[in-house]
Each structure stands twice: as structure tokens, then as C-alpha cells.
Amino acid sequence: MNNKKAYFITQAAVIAALYVVLTLFINAFDLASGAIQVRISEALTILPYFTPAAVPGLFIGCLLSNFMTGAAIWDIIFGSLATLIGAIGTYLLRKWKWCAPLPPILSNTIIIPFVLTYAYGIPGGIPFFMLTVGVGEVLSCGVLGMILLFALQRYRNIIFKNNA
Asked: Could you report the per-residue pLDDT of 143-157, keeping only the tens digit for each?
């Protein structure tokens, strides 16, 4: 295995681990799932702006987090796919810094309300869940994610040296 491939796998694994740790931490405060959720690990969805290794890392991290927090099978599948779609979108829009948080905000705001309604049977309706999940995603991805992006921007060539 060459160094570039090992570096990619290592970056993806570290990002997945960070996602899991942050999700488990915020889950202790009952904020990682449900109709009102602010999953701080979603701030990491801006990382594809810096490295393509973040795409599989975020997907695997979300998949493991959903499984470890006891999510329903449909949440494990579709919640993880929402994060994957968001991560791919961020990677594709990486030339436009201010667009980095938009794909995960949109994918989660559209997909997760259906999961909450049909996988969990939570009363409230899809439009209400789009509002609550959307607000949580704006806070997680839009606010925290952009703070993270600007903090990492300064060290981009050190942390993500093979992807600068």
C-alpha cells in the first residue's frame, strides 16, 4: 500500500472516529436524535471542503454512530445516506467556501423528517420536522461547521497536506 492511500484511509478513519465520539458525547445530553436535534458531529460535514477522505469517513462515522445510539434500521440506513449525500455535495462545491455547509443542511432537512415520521412514528408532521431538523442542521453545519472551516483554513496545508 502506498503512502497516499494509507494517508487517505487514516484521514477517513480519524474523521469517522471523531464523528462517533462527538455524537456519543452529545447523545449523553439527548441532543443527537429525535425531532429536535443538534448533532455537533455534523459540523464535521464541512471537512470534504479540505479532503475527499472525509466523504467515506463521515459516512462510516454516521453509520456507526446511528448503530451505537440504538437508532432504528431505517435511520441507520437513511440517516447515514443523508450524511453521505451531504458530504459528497460539500466535496463537489469545495471551490465555493460559503456553500460548504449547504449540502448537508439540505440533505438532512429533506431526508430525516421522513425517517422521524415513518421509522419512529413521532407525531408532528414532516413540515414541522423539516423546520426542527433544518434549524439543528443550520446550527451544526452552518454555524459550528463554518467556525470549524475557518479555524482549519489557517492550518490547511499542515493537516490536509496531501489535499491542499
From this structure: 999 999 999 999 988
Q: What are phi and psi of 69, to 5 degrees?
A: -90, 5
Tens digit of pLDDT for each residue in 23-56? 999 888 876 666 667 889 999 999 999 999 999 9
- Report domain extents, the chain: 3-30+37-163
Q: What is the mean pLDDT of residues 62-78?
A: 95
Q: Which of 67, 46, 68, 64 is nearest to 55 (CA)?
A: 46
Query: Percentage of the chain surpassing pLDDT 70?
Result: 94
Instruction: Write out the CATH class of domain 3-30+37-163.
Output: mainly alpha
Q: How far apart are CA 59 and CA 76, in angstroms?
A: 11
Of residues 105, 115, 106, the one with CA closest to residue 78:
115
- Cell numbers that stand for 78 in this block: 437513511
**Per-residue DSSP letters for 47-100?**
GGGT-TTHHHHHHHHHHHHHHHTT--HHHHHHHHHHHHHHHHHHHHTTTSGGGT
* 150: DSSP letter: H
Whole-model pTM: value is 0.91
Closest listed residue to residue 101, CA positions, set 69, 147, 36, 153: 147
